[in-house]
Amino acid sequence: MKTIDWKAAPSPSYVVDERLLLRNLEILKSVQDRTGCDILLALKGFSMFSTFPMARNYLKGITSSSLFEARLGYEEFGKEVHAYAPAYAEHEIDEYLKYVDHIVFNSFDQLHKYKEKVQSVEGKHVSIGLRVNPGYSEVETPLYDPCYINSRLGIPVDSFRPDELDGVEGIHFHAMCEQGSDVLERILVHFEEKYGEYLHKMKWINFGGGHHITREDYDVDKLVSLINYMQDKYDVKVILEPGEAIALNTGYLVTTVLDVVKNGMEIAILDTSATCHMPDVLEMPYRPQIIGASTPNDKAYTYRLGGMTCLAGDVIGDYSFDEPLKAGDKIVFTDMAHYTMVKNHMFNGVNLPSICLYNEEEGVKVVRQFGYEDYRNRLS
After folding, report:
1. What is the pLDDT of residue 19?
2. Which residues are part of a known binding site?
3. What CATH number does domain 36-247 carry, 3.20.20.10, 3.40.50.720, 3.30.70.1280, 3.90.550.10?
């Protein structure tokens, strides 16, 4: 596989490798082909719509959690549009219904409030679902655990009203984050125990997101077996809506060293920011990988990498390198396509990274660059 010329990319910039994206999409399509399930792109994780012409050849559609995501999927992806939100605002629901094919409610009250409106949409059938909380998850970080104690996401079994399912065609649950099919297998035990008796009345079950299907060690055969089991047992269509799995390990963040200072250790200041450009580094927190770098003290020269904002904690992490860092050196972070572009912001007036695509025929292609007007137009 031809290597990317990082000097051809603006700094900072996100670069998505179309070859790697295609690999992920082919894996996801193989799951659909082997099971007949539907796999959707969850836009909350990856909304780079310049990749949609490729993705729509492999996926059934998109899933959204806001009006703008639903519109983006409708206008740019052009296939099925699914929606789930913790609650829908009354002034937005009519526009939602212009875009969506499936809508999932988080409570019976919201279902009753909007059911008649959904069922009266002209020109198409909008399938109604309810999100339930299976009461079991194995997510270790509370910030990302949909089933943490007192979670607002999904109807718990003690609030479920089986006599109020008229018009409901599907059940949705989401209980995973970056996990394997072994975790899904254990979740399904709890899900069936609590809600299995109602599934025979349904047309579909949505397993939500958090499935790391394209990770190298993911057990795809087990996933296929679980999907087929549920579809055969309950005579339903299974839907999955991963976000991260579509873009996993497909993207890079190309950055440049601006300066090197010393305060007890060597500190390299980059033209990027953890808080602005890779917020999960601070929220999770986690330490992103860098091409050619290693853990502190493993290689000859160790540095702390810091961002360019005035936030004291805008620190990416400590890394070691074979050669000393100097101003102008390129630093390339890996796995930077998902939960970056969709979450970044302009705190401190720091500009957003450019957005680029790479393929072997065209090389690095700049899709979008940002400037002062983008910053100003978000303010008043």
Report:
1. 98
2. 244, 280
3. 3.20.20.10
Whole-Å CA distances, 354 to 4, 76, 296, 375: 16, 20, 29, 14
Mean pLDDT of the chain: 98
One-letter identity of residue 129: G
| CB 203 within 8 Å of CB 230 | no
Q: How far apart are CA 132 and CA 144, in angstroms?
A: 17
Strands 38-42 and 80-84: unpaired
End-to-end CA distance of the chain: 47
Residues of the chain with pLDDT under 70: none
C-alpha closest to that of 178 among 224, 220, 138, 221: 138
For 340, the token pair is 């970056």
Residues 228-252 have pLDDT tens digits of 999 999 999 999 999 999 999 999 9
Domain ranges in the chain are 6-14+251-336+344-376, 36-247
Q: Does domain 6-14+251-336+344-376 have CATH number 2.40.37.10?
A: yes
Q: Which helix (H) or strand (E) holds 70?
A: helix 67-72
Picking from 200, 203, 196, 205, the residue whose alpha carbon sits closest to that of residue 171 is 205
How many whole angstroms separate alpha carbon 119 and alpha carbon 103?
11
- The candidate with the shortest Cα–Cα distance to 132, out of 82, 205, 241, is 205
Partners of residue 357 on adjacent β-strands: 16, 365
Structure tokens at 218: 């993911």
State the pLDDT at residue 1.
82
Q: Are 367 and 355 in contact (CB under 8 A)?
A: yes
Task: Detail the residues annotated as belonging to a binding site for substrate.
Answer: 244, 280
Identify which of 173, 175, 190, 163 has the alpha carbon closest to the alpha carbon of residue 108: 163
